[in-house]
Write a structure and sequence with these properties.
Blueprint (H helix, E strand, L loop, with lengths): L2 H11 L8 E5 L4 H12 L3 E8 L5 H17 L3 E5 L2 H7 L4 H38 L15 E4 L4 H14 L12 E2 L2 E2 L7 H10 L16 H16 L3 H30 L1 E3 L2 E5 H5 L4 H9 L9 H7 L7 E3 L3 E6 L2 E6 L8 E3 L5 E4 L2 E9 L11 E5 L7 E5 L5 E2 L8 E2 H7 L4 H5 L2 E5 L2 E5 L3 E2 L11 E7 L1
Parallel strand pairs: 1-2, 1-4, 2-3, 4-6
Antiparallel strand pairs: 5-6, 7-8, 8-11, 9-10, 10-11, 12-16, 13-14, 14-22, 15-22, 16-19, 17-18, 19-20, 20-21
Length: about 475
């Protein structure tokens, strides 16, 4: 069976979209996305192209953009192109480059879909008005032929799915991580998941398709590339059919995950009671639940708690009233025979970058005055609202943000690290003080808990010649 037939059969079998629907193809210019374009053309689907220029590979990024524009001319379809300052976005949001690119990409795709859908809806209304006139102004809904949905199509294939499964497995995942990539998630569709990389390359060769190569694909600094070039080939030296076997197993894992979610849903119905914005859970009933750890994790993950906090929640079941743990958005409080999950009183603040040129920075709790000074004849302040750091140990930009669970630092005068949550307890800080605590960090190292204490690694010494003075106003 040729690839085109497999392609259309897979779309029908998984009910991914209808032939009349409009498609937005995410096209990088690589062989996978070029083959996706050709398949959609041969299948006579109505598609447009979207290309993201992340500006991460200089001339190569510009080359890719021009190539994708030429694809639009070849297939006579609309091409959407957008340039992103990916590195700046990643730094500002404290995320990796790949995660930043993914967020930028899908947010933009959704913007296009919304805009194009509005145009399609407007055209449908015009067509409906025409029908009303033709049928003596009888008011009716437009026929199905005028109802068009737009979907985003990506070129993820079977080998991508295996890599995703393995990455999820090794970094730690629930059962849902073993199902790999879904053929459809919301309005995003992956119609090539049935195809291997070998099949895609063969199709490109048979159809004389041109494409561009991304030089970063050969670099193992990215996790996916490391699995692709190192891990999977090493496994296949022992189990030659390992990748094929995993491709076959993904469907089984997906079916297992369906049964798993059904069981979790039944547990939640028995355990969770809504009271306004709060979720109440009876402690005694939860303690009798088996498997306890799995059910607890499935409950708390929807409130931004991590898998590492599962054991903390279980310990909370037998602790005294008033004990609690916290995520970025919620807290879980032990109240007699109940666990109460409630939203935090204060919203999570945005991250604020402090550049080297910045002299004054405003945030929710006031202002920070930042200045560099010489250490000559300088006298230290005893005020907790003013800190003096070794400027030669500081690299800008700095990040001002709310503290979060898992944060730690090396308190001034100590050589061992301490979690902020424990530091706050030792300081006898109230719940409100904890919720309003801010930190300044550099390269994921906390420099100062604002208004409380600096990190010992950035203190001034008798060798310090340049000072960084930060004053909270």
């Amino acid at each position: 069976m040729n690839l085109l037939k497999k392609f259309t059969d897979f779309i029908k079998k998984e009910n991914l979209f209808q032939e009349k629907d409009k498609l937005l193809l995410a096209v990088s210019g690589g062989v996978d996305s070029v083959v996706l374009c050709e398949l959609c053309k041969q299948a006579r689907y109505d598609f447009s192209i979207a290309h993201c220029n992340f500006q991460l590979r200089e001339e190569e990024s510009e080359r890719d953009e021009q190539f994708v524009k030429s694809l639009g001319e070849k297939y006579e379809v609309k091409v959407f192109v957008k340039k992103f300052d990916t590195e700046k976005y990643a730094l500002k949001n404290r995320i990796g480059i790949q995660e930043a690119a993914r967020k930028l990409r899908y947010d933009w795709f959704n913007e296009i879909v919304d805009a194009e859908s509005a145009i399609n809806n407007q055209q449908s209304e015009i067509n409906n008005q025409k029908l009303k006139i033709e049928n003596n102004n009888i008011n009716h809904s437009p026929p199905d032929s005028y109802r068009v949905t737009m979907y985003v199509l990506t070129a993820h294939h079977a080998n991508d799915n295996v890599e995703t499964l393995l990455m999820n497995f090794f970094k730690g995942t629930g059962i849902s991580g073993l199902r790999g990539i879904l053929p459809r998630h919301g309005n995003v569709i992956r119609p090539l998941l049935f195809a291997t990389k070998k099949e895609i390359k063969s199709f490109a060769q048979e159809n004389n398709l041109s494409f561009v190569e991304d030089s970063s694909n050969v670099l193992d600094k990215y996790t996916r590339n490391f699995f692709r070039h190192q891990v999977i080939p090493s496994i296949e030296k022992v189990f030659p059919k390992a990748e094929d076997n995993l491709i076959d197993n993904i469907k089984r894992f997906s079916e297992i995950e369906t049964l798993y979610q059904q069981a979790i849903s039944n547990h939640k119905k028995k355990l969770l009671e809504q009271a306004g914005e709060e979720t109440h859970i009876p402690v005694l009933k939860l303690l009798k639940t088996d498997p306890l750890s799995t059910v607890v994790y499935e409950i708390i993950k929807n409130f931004n708690f991590t898998s590492n906090q599962t054991e903390e929640v279980i310990h909370l079941l037998k602790s005294e009233t008033g004990k609690y743990i916290q995520s970025s958005s919620h807290k879980i409080i032990k109240n007699r025979n109940w666990l109460i999950i409630s939203p935090n009183n204060t919203r999570v603040a945005e991250n604020i970058l402090i550049e080297e040129k910045d002299k004054m920075v405003e945030f929710a709790n006031g202002k920070l005055k930042v200045e560099k000074l010489s250490a000559t004849n300088f006298k230290l302040s005893a005020d907790n609202m003013t800190v003096t750091l070794d400027a030669d140990e500081i690299k800008f930009p700095l990040l001002l943000r709310k503290w979060k669970q898992g944060d730690y630092f090396y308190p001034l005068g100590m050589k061992k690290k301490k979690k902020l949550s424990r530091f706050f307890i030792d300081q006898k800080m109230s719940l409100t003080e904890k919720e309003n605590a801010w930190v300044i960090e550099m390269d994921k190292k906390i420099i100062w808990i604002v208004g409380k204490r600096i990190d010992d690694r950035f203190k001034i010494t008798d060798k310090t010649s340049n000072l960084l003075l930060i004053n909270k106003l």
